[in-house]
Amino acid sequence: MGDLKPLLAVLSGEARAVPPLWLMRQAGRYLPEYQELRAKAGSFLDTCYNPRIAARITLQPIERFGFDAAILFSDILVVPDALGQKVWFESGSGPRLVPVESDAEIAALAESFDIEKLSPVFETIDRVKGELPKSVAFIGFCGAPWTVASYMIAGRGTPDQAPARLFAYRRPEAFARLIDTLVEASAAYLIRQIDAGVEALQLFDSWAGVLPPSEFERWVAEPLKKIIGKVKAARPRVPIIAFVRGGATHLAGLSERLGAQALGLDTAIDPAWAAETIPAGTALQGNLDPLALLAGGAALDREIDAILRCFSGRPHIFNLGHGVLPETPLEHVSQLAARIRGTGN
Question: Domain tally for the chain?
Fold first, then answer.
């Protein structure tokens, strides 16, 4: 495994004395160079579909902090966009979609899927892969069906995803058709990302934690398993990280059930519990509180050290338990990188 990039080595089962480091939302609003490019690009969706700008944004945190992985700059809602649902972003209030409401609209989505609409994303990947340092891995991603469906039903993000939950209870057959459509589209999208040049994948199920156990199984675990199975059947060598936020005790045997090589841990997961409970063959990723990164100083060092102790001796990727907060000081990210690499105080 010695010739593998650090992140890929960990995903293949290697425990490293210094874990590889990357951060969710590492390319984003906390970076002044990102803000400068965004101001030139137009809307957020225009930014995602501009390969030249999206590639630069993907590379910015690597150039500034030397992270061990770059993650594609894009958004989980490009898949509904490619399915023909109208998607846009409103400044200061986030994503908006024309809600999917009828059975006919849901049935039409599968027929409307146009993966070529996502060709700018694949061009972004092609641009980035040639500029990454040799030791830096390249991660592609998509949203998991439950999380993406929750936006498609509600037309926006909601605190508890009640619109999608009610839809699934009241019209389970229609909701299942929507989930199946997202499984097929997401698998095709991920395979194309691999073919364009990414070396690992992460699936984001950011709203999995709002579901009770029976609904979690039906709308989170099974769709993720299907996507991973389809991707692995087509491109078996590419490792997959499943980030199931709010998964809690579901995580104990989840990686084996899904076929994922790693589990991303959210902030609420006790690292000691995860290290003791989740099988040793599963790489673990996480799970520093983004607010600890925002706080910096001694509190940040203390939290970093506690996570490193818990995961010592097993495959571990250092990351946050959710994304970088926009107001995070750059010097705190530098402090984190230095501490992980053993050059901090």
Answer: 1
